[in-house]
């Protein structure tokens, strides 16, 4: 096991990239701590799988280095890196029995028979397949096959990291939750570094200690689920995490006030001059409908999702969502919306701006 | 809803029945007619029962031809199947070279059988053939017209040249259907090249491979034109395979009765082997669906 360091890493699928737009993965420096449970979150096509394949050595980066501990493995083969990887669609060896499937990575590394037998039993129990170990893998259902793939990914104890590439896509929701819990338990038990690629925020937030959000070939933020929720470093994080995502409104920031559409919103700290396009971001959870306090809002629609209601409205020509607690009456008297000052984030050209120091 | 039973729909099968009757059953029955009768022309037939069949079953001539036929089919399958797989594995997967390979591979398949025979007949000639002449120059005693071994080698090499592409193309199609993730997983699992072939590529090719083997078996078991053009069944009877022998008997010697009995048995053998292949294939499918 080792810490994985990515140094000035970038990748383009073109042989001669001409500028930044040709890079699937833009230049980045990143460190994956030994033993961490990471989720790599982002929409489809943002470079998650590319990054994963570079770590496992299935892809050689166009530039930069990959380090396991102190060792430079940029040019090392996948087998040499001692990495386990589970793919989006199940990969099983059809003609082998389930037992042989699970034992395959161990046999290839020349482990002794007694150990293999013990380890395979252990993994089989974990994925709940010990009863059918001696049948052939051919003809299993997709989710059973994926469980075998997961088992094969976890069968080696000495791996540097286990990489999961959206492994639960083909599995039905009930089983998804169960497997995710098992992965989490496994992580606590064995302490492998795990990197879990997904575009499902619930999956990411429940699995990982640290969530890495990617957008357009870049890592835009790495943090705990709480950090991603409270202080998104990029408007994409604000919008992607949360349901519905963060409200973003163009504003002019002067000191500790944001001006938008002729009204003003108090902030809880003062900001220096904000360069570029300025926006304020507020989560729907921290917006409150009032009878006159705050900004005027025209309500368009109310959606009841059970545990709360989502109010869709418009402030100064921009869509704003507000989460109203269950039981709160919503009527024509509610004409304004108030944003909780200490929950407002300020963005310049989509990146979060910290308040000026010492004024708070 | 109540289902109404209406057997009139069976009449819709009638046209097919008529076509099949005239294209297959009636001609086949003519052969059966010849096989159980003796005739001296003028459409006069004398019932002989199974006499021709008995004669054929005990005929050394037929046994020898059958032996040669089985040996020939076995040899070309043993060469073409592994060679075809090997070629398919080494063909480029995409891009310009893949297309070029596909076109080049398909070329021998497009040449008419008798033309293939003629090409090799000339190619192997000691006096003017490119191959035969040069082999002679280098001191090889090669002559397919009077050495049975040379004749066999020529006929086999010709068949390999003509048909290996078919096996290769079918295998190539099977290989193309393997998702990349399988190869990636194999890398992660540290599988050897052999293991990748044995556990990923071969199982995915199994279906098309069975079809390839079946096609190559049937074709080689019925081979006529190419060896006939090259060696005419000689030297002696050394390359007289079943079809060649059958034609000699029926048209050369005009022994219509024995030839008819011969063809029926020939037909049944091919039917039997094809049935075995079919059973094996469907059983494999069943296992998959289990």
From TrEMBL, chain A:
| Keyword Membrane in record | yes
Protein keywords: ATP-binding, Cell membrane, Membrane, Nucleotide-binding, Transport
Which Gene3D superfamilies does UniProt cross-reference here? Answer: 2.40.50.100, P-loop containing nucleotide triphosphate hydrolases
State a single Gene Ontology molecular function: ATP binding
Q: Enumerate the SMART domains for this protein.
A: AAA
| InterPro entries given in the database record | AAA+_ATPase (IPR003593), ABC_transporter-like_ATP-bd (IPR003439), ABC_transpr_FbpC (IPR015853), ABC_transpr_MalK/UgpC-like (IPR047641), Mo/tungstate-bd_C_term_dom (IPR008995), OB_MalK-like (IPR040582), P-loop_NTPase (IPR027417)
Which segments constitute the ABC transporter domain? 4-241
> Residues of the signal sequence?
none
Taxonomically, the superkingdom here is Bacteria
What family is this protein classified in?
Answer: Belongs to the ABC transporter superfamily.
Query: What protein am I looking at?
Result: ABC transporter ATP-binding protein
Which species does this protein come from?
Tabrizicola soli
TrEMBL record, chain B:
Subcellular location, in the record's words? Cell membrane
Membrane topology value: Multi-pass membrane protein
The organism sits in which domain of life?
Answer: Bacteria
UniProt-listed CDD domains: TM_PBP2
- Listed InterPro entries: MetI-like, MetI-like_sf, Sugar_ABC_transporter
Transmembrane parts of this sequence: 12-36, 70-89, 96-123, 151-175, 196-218, 259-280
Residues annotated as domain ABC transmembrane type-1:
66-277
Q: Keywords in UniProt for this one? A: Membrane, Transmembrane, Transmembrane helix, Transport
Q: Which family does it belong to?
A: Belongs to the binding-protein-dependent transport system permease family.
- Write the protein's name: Carbohydrate ABC transporter permease
From what organism does this protein derive?
A: Tabrizicola soli
């Amino acid at each position: 096991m080792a810490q994985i360091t990515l140094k000035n890493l970038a990748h383009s699928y073109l042989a001669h990239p001409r500028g930044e737009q040709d890079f699937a993965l833009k230049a980045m420096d990143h460190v994956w701590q030994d033993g961490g449970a990471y989720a790599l979150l982002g929409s489809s096509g943002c470079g998650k799988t590319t990054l994963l394949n570079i770590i496992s050595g299935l892809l050689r980066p166009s530039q930069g280095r990959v380090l396991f501990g102190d060792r430079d493995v940029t040019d090392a083969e996948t087998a040499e890196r001692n990495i386990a990887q589970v793919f989006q669609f199940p990969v099983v060896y059809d003609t082998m029995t389930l037992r042989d499937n699970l034992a395959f990575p161990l046999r290839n590394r020349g482990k002794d028979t007694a150990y293999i037998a013990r380890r395979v039993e252990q993994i089989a129990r974990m994925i709940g397949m010990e009863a059918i170990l001696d049948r052939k893998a051919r003809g299993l259902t997709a989710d059973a096959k994926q469980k075998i793939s997961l088992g094969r990914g976890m069968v080696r104890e000495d791996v540097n990291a286990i990489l999961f590439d959206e492994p639960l896509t083909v599995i039905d929701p009930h089983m998804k939750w169960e497997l995710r819990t098992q992965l989490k338990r496994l992580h606590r038990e064995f302490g492998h570094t795990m990197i879990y690629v997904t575009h499902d925020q619930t999956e990411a937030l429940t699995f990982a200690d640290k969530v890495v959000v990617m957008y357009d070939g870049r890592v835009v933020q790495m943090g705990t689920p709480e950090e991603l929720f409270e202080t998104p470093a990029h408007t994409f994080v604000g919008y992607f995490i949360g349901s519905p995502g963060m409200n973003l409104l163009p504003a002019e920031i002067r000191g500790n006030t944001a001006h938008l559409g002729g009204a003003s919103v108090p902030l809880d700290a003062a900001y220096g001059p904000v360069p570029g396009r300025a926006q304020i971001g507020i989560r729907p959870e921290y917006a409150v409908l009032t009878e006159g306090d705050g900004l005027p809002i025209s309500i368009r629609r109310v959606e009841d999702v059970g545990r709360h209601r989502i109010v869709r409205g418009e402030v100064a020509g921009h869509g704003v969502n507000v989460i109203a607690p269950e039981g709160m009456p919503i009527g024509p008297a509610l004409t304004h919306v108030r944003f909780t000052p200490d929950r407002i984030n300020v963005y310049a050209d989509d990146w979060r701006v910290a308040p000026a120091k010492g004024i708070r | 809803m109540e289902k109404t039973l209406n057997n009139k729909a069976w009449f819709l099968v009638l046209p097919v029945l008529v076509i099949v009757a005239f294209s297959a059953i009636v001609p086949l029955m003519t052969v059966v007619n010849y096989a159980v009768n003796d005739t001296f022309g003028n459409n006069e037939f004398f019932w002989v029962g199974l006499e021709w069949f008995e004669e054929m079953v005990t005929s050394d001539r037929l046994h020898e031809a059958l032996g040669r036929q089985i040996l020939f089919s076995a040899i070309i399958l043993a060469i073409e199947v592994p060679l075809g797989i090997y070629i398919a594995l080494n063909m480029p997967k995409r891009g310009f070279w893949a297309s070029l390979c596909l076109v080049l591979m398909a070329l021998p398949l497009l040449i008419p059988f008798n033309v293939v025979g003629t090409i090799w007949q000339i190619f192997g000639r000691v006096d003017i053939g490119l191959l035969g002449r040069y082999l002679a120059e280098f001191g090889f005693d090669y002559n397919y017209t009077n050495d049975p071994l040379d004749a066999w080698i020529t006929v086999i090499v010709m068949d390999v040249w003509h048909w290996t592409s078919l096996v290769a193309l079918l295998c190539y199609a099977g290989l193309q259907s393997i998702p990349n993730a399988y190869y990636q997983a194999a890398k992660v699992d540290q599988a050897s090249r052999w293991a990748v072939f044995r556990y990923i590529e071969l199982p995915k090719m199994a279906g098309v491979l069975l079809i390839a083997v079946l096609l190559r078996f049937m074709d080689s078991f019925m081979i006529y034109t190419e060896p006939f053009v090259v060696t005419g069944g000689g030297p002696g009877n050394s390359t007289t395979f079943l079809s060649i022998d059958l034609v000699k008997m029926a048209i050369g010697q005009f022994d219509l009765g024995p030839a008819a009995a011969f063809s029926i048995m020939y037909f049944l053998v091919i039917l039997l082997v094809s049935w075995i292949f079919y059973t094996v294939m469907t059983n494999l499918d069943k296992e998959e669906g289990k």
